[in-house]
Amino acid sequence: LYSIIAFVFIVVVCCGGLVLIGRMNDIIIANFYTDKRTGFYNRAYFDKYLQKNSRTIIDDGTVIISVMISNQREINKEFGRNVGDDVISLFADQLRTVFSKMNSMFVYNGNSHFIVILSKSDSITAEDAVQTFAAYLDNRESCENVDIKYEVGVAETFRERVKSARALLVESIKNRREF
What is the pTM of this model? Predict the structure, then answer.
């Protein structure tokens, strides 16, 4: 009887330990590389991602979309930080709604700056999605009394002829236009 109990205990402990070790990367990403408000990857994860995947990003036809809430400070001053946080959450939700079906990665880079990376996509598809995103924000139900000004820039690897993923990000920032 004791042998059976010991065997079951060892199997449970070993299996539980293996599952925990297997999920360790997910735990680390959730705790250290994810923005808590938006659920998007944070700047630290994005930096590691760019270092590791720069060549792949350039070779695979990637589109980077840079979204910046340009009047976030004014929103925080006029309506309070809670409303400002609600605006950031609204942007995250709308970006997720529009771009989640497009093989995308989402990053909240801090300071009201969002980055969407679309793998194996093109700028025409991205521009259409940006227009859909703008329409969603125009018809929003939350924060409707807040005047939100934002800028969106799109850069594509094949169109921009850049040699690194960071240069592509810089191009997306340069290409921003106001909404």
Answer: 0.84
